[in-house]
Amino acid sequence: MKTVYLMRHGETLFNQQKKIQGWCDSPLTELGRKQALIAKNYFIENEIELDSAYSSTSERACDTLELVTDLRYARVKGLKEWNFGDLEAEHEYLNPPLPYGDFFVAFGGEGEHEFRERVAKTVLELAQADAGENILMVSHGASCRQFMRAWEHTSKVELQGRITNCCILKFAFDNDQFELLEIINHDFSGIR
Protein backbone atom coordinates (compact mmCIF):
# COMPACT_ATOMS: atom_id res chain seq x y z
CA MET A 1 0.00 0.00 0.00
CA LYS A 2 1.15 3.52 -0.79
CA THR A 3 0.31 6.80 0.90
CA VAL A 4 -0.33 9.89 -1.19
CA TYR A 5 -0.13 13.27 0.52
CA LEU A 6 -2.06 15.75 -1.64
CA MET A 7 -1.31 19.25 -0.42
CA ARG A 8 -2.47 22.77 -1.23
CA HIS A 9 0.12 25.52 -1.76
CA GLY A 10 0.83 28.30 0.77
CA GLU A 11 -0.86 31.70 0.79
CA THR A 12 -0.20 33.85 -2.29
CA LEU A 13 -0.46 37.52 -3.12
CA PHE A 14 -3.72 36.87 -5.02
CA ASN A 15 -5.12 34.91 -2.05
CA GLN A 16 -4.38 37.97 0.09
CA GLN A 17 -5.98 40.30 -2.48
CA LYS A 18 -9.06 38.03 -2.91
CA LYS A 19 -8.38 37.50 -6.62
CA ILE A 20 -9.47 34.49 -8.68
CA GLN A 21 -6.36 32.39 -9.20
CA GLY A 22 -6.46 29.28 -11.33
CA TRP A 23 -4.04 28.98 -14.23
CA CYS A 24 -2.75 32.49 -13.58
CA ASP A 25 -0.17 32.71 -10.83
CA SER A 26 1.13 34.96 -8.08
CA PRO A 27 4.01 34.52 -5.63
CA LEU A 28 3.86 33.13 -2.13
CA THR A 29 3.57 35.74 0.60
CA GLU A 30 5.81 35.68 3.66
CA LEU A 31 2.91 34.00 5.49
CA GLY A 32 2.67 31.44 2.69
CA ARG A 33 6.35 30.56 3.09
CA LYS A 34 5.90 30.17 6.86
CA GLN A 35 2.83 27.95 6.27
CA ALA A 36 4.93 25.69 4.03
CA LEU A 37 7.54 25.34 6.79
CA ILE A 38 4.81 24.33 9.26
CA ALA A 39 3.67 21.70 6.74
CA LYS A 40 7.29 20.51 6.48
CA ASN A 41 7.32 20.08 10.26
CA TYR A 42 4.26 17.82 10.01
CA PHE A 43 6.32 15.33 8.01
CA ILE A 44 9.34 15.67 10.33
CA GLU A 45 7.33 15.33 13.57
CA ASN A 46 5.46 12.29 12.24
CA GLU A 47 8.70 10.72 10.96
CA ILE A 48 7.32 10.46 7.43
CA GLU A 49 10.10 9.85 4.92
CA LEU A 50 8.91 11.07 1.55
CA ASP A 51 10.06 8.91 -1.38
CA SER A 52 8.96 11.10 -4.26
CA ALA A 53 7.32 14.42 -5.02
CA TYR A 54 5.25 16.08 -7.75
CA SER A 55 4.00 19.61 -8.17
CA SER A 56 1.59 21.54 -10.30
CA THR A 57 3.48 23.59 -12.86
CA SER A 58 2.32 26.78 -11.11
CA GLU A 59 5.09 28.69 -9.32
CA ARG A 60 3.12 28.89 -6.07
CA ALA A 61 2.93 25.08 -5.87
CA CYS A 62 6.59 24.52 -6.86
CA ASP A 63 7.79 27.09 -4.33
CA THR A 64 5.69 25.46 -1.60
CA LEU A 65 7.06 22.00 -2.42
CA GLU A 66 10.65 23.28 -2.37
CA LEU A 67 10.09 24.61 1.17
CA VAL A 68 8.64 21.28 2.33
CA THR A 69 11.26 18.90 0.89
CA ASP A 70 14.64 18.84 -0.83
CA LEU A 71 13.59 15.92 -3.03
CA ARG A 72 13.91 16.27 -6.78
CA TYR A 73 10.41 16.51 -8.18
CA ALA A 74 8.44 16.49 -11.41
CA ARG A 75 6.26 19.41 -12.51
CA VAL A 76 2.95 18.07 -13.81
CA LYS A 77 0.38 20.12 -15.76
CA GLY A 78 -2.46 17.81 -14.75
CA LEU A 79 -2.10 18.96 -11.12
CA LYS A 80 -2.85 22.58 -12.07
CA GLU A 81 -5.77 24.48 -10.59
CA TRP A 82 -9.16 24.95 -12.27
CA ASN A 83 -8.94 27.07 -15.42
CA PHE A 84 -11.24 30.04 -14.75
CA GLY A 85 -10.88 31.48 -18.26
CA ASP A 86 -11.40 35.23 -18.63
CA LEU A 87 -12.14 35.55 -14.91
CA GLU A 88 -8.52 34.77 -14.02
CA ALA A 89 -7.03 37.51 -11.80
CA GLU A 90 -10.43 39.20 -11.37
CA HIS A 91 -11.93 39.82 -7.92
CA GLU A 92 -13.45 36.82 -6.11
CA TYR A 93 -16.83 38.55 -5.80
CA LEU A 94 -17.38 37.56 -9.46
CA ASN A 95 -17.47 33.88 -8.48
CA PRO A 96 -20.94 32.34 -8.43
CA PRO A 97 -22.20 30.56 -5.30
CA LEU A 98 -20.88 27.01 -4.86
CA PRO A 99 -21.06 24.58 -6.55
CA TYR A 100 -19.52 26.25 -9.61
CA GLY A 101 -20.53 23.52 -12.06
CA ASP A 102 -19.90 24.67 -15.63
CA PHE A 103 -20.07 28.41 -14.85
CA PHE A 104 -16.53 29.10 -16.12
CA VAL A 105 -17.05 27.40 -19.51
CA ALA A 106 -18.84 30.52 -20.76
CA PHE A 107 -15.64 32.47 -19.97
CA GLY A 108 -13.31 30.03 -21.75
CA GLY A 109 -12.52 27.99 -18.62
CA GLU A 110 -13.03 24.38 -17.61
CA GLY A 111 -16.25 22.66 -16.64
CA GLU A 112 -16.35 21.01 -13.22
CA HIS A 113 -16.49 17.39 -14.43
CA GLU A 114 -13.76 17.97 -17.04
CA PHE A 115 -11.58 19.50 -14.30
CA ARG A 116 -12.31 16.69 -11.82
CA GLU A 117 -11.48 14.06 -14.46
CA ARG A 118 -8.17 15.77 -15.28
CA VAL A 119 -7.00 15.91 -11.67
CA ALA A 120 -8.26 12.42 -10.74
CA LYS A 121 -6.65 10.83 -13.82
CA THR A 122 -3.35 12.64 -13.18
CA VAL A 123 -3.08 11.63 -9.51
CA LEU A 124 -4.05 8.03 -10.34
CA GLU A 125 -1.46 7.74 -13.12
CA LEU A 126 1.28 9.25 -10.95
CA ALA A 127 0.47 6.91 -8.03
CA GLN A 128 0.37 3.87 -10.33
CA ALA A 129 3.74 4.66 -11.92
CA ASP A 130 5.58 5.64 -8.72
CA ALA A 131 7.49 2.93 -6.86
CA GLY A 132 7.65 4.92 -3.60
CA GLU A 133 5.58 4.33 -0.49
CA ASN A 134 5.13 7.97 0.59
CA ILE A 135 4.33 10.34 -2.25
CA LEU A 136 3.86 14.11 -1.95
CA MET A 137 1.82 16.02 -4.56
CA VAL A 138 1.48 19.79 -4.19
CA SER A 139 -1.52 21.25 -5.95
CA HIS A 140 -4.36 23.72 -5.30
CA GLY A 141 -7.51 24.15 -3.23
CA ALA A 142 -10.12 23.32 -5.87
CA SER A 143 -7.91 20.57 -7.31
CA CYS A 144 -7.69 18.92 -3.90
CA ARG A 145 -11.43 19.30 -3.34
CA GLN A 146 -12.29 17.79 -6.73
CA PHE A 147 -9.96 14.85 -6.11
CA MET A 148 -11.73 14.28 -2.78
CA ARG A 149 -15.07 14.31 -4.61
CA ALA A 150 -13.80 11.79 -7.15
CA TRP A 151 -13.05 9.35 -4.30
CA GLU A 152 -15.72 10.24 -1.71
CA HIS A 153 -17.43 6.88 -2.34
CA THR A 154 -14.42 5.06 -0.80
CA SER A 155 -13.79 7.45 2.11
CA LYS A 156 -15.36 7.94 5.52
CA VAL A 157 -13.49 11.16 6.32
CA GLU A 158 -15.32 14.35 5.36
CA LEU A 159 -14.07 17.91 5.24
CA GLN A 160 -15.95 20.41 7.34
CA GLY A 161 -15.16 23.87 5.99
CA ARG A 162 -12.41 24.85 3.59
CA ILE A 163 -9.17 23.36 2.38
CA THR A 164 -6.85 25.94 3.91
CA ASN A 165 -3.42 26.88 2.59
CA CYS A 166 -0.93 24.01 3.03
CA CYS A 167 -3.72 21.62 4.04
CA ILE A 168 -2.56 18.01 3.59
CA LEU A 169 -4.97 15.30 2.49
CA LYS A 170 -3.63 11.86 3.41
CA PHE A 171 -4.83 9.11 1.07
CA ALA A 172 -4.18 5.38 1.16
CA PHE A 173 -3.64 3.96 -2.35
CA ASP A 174 -4.09 0.23 -2.95
CA ASN A 175 -5.41 -1.78 -5.92
CA ASP A 176 -5.96 1.42 -7.92
CA GLN A 177 -8.28 2.77 -5.21
CA PHE A 178 -7.83 5.84 -3.01
CA GLU A 179 -9.23 6.23 0.49
CA LEU A 180 -9.02 9.52 2.36
CA LEU A 181 -7.57 8.73 5.78
CA GLU A 182 -6.98 12.15 7.31
CA ILE A 183 -7.29 15.89 6.66
CA ILE A 184 -4.50 17.97 8.19
CA ASN A 185 -5.49 21.65 8.37
CA HIS A 186 -2.63 23.24 10.30
CA ASP A 187 -2.95 25.80 13.09
CA PHE A 188 -1.30 28.98 11.82
CA SER A 189 -2.50 31.19 14.69
CA GLY A 190 1.00 31.43 16.17
CA ILE A 191 2.65 32.73 12.99
CA ARG A 192 4.11 36.20 13.26
Automatic annotation (TrEMBL):
**InterPro entries from the UniProt entry:** His_Pase_superF_clade-1, His_PPase_superfam, PG/BPGM_mutase_AS, PGM_Phosphatase
A Pfam family (short name) is His_Phos_1
Q: What is this protein called?
A: Histidine phosphatase family protein
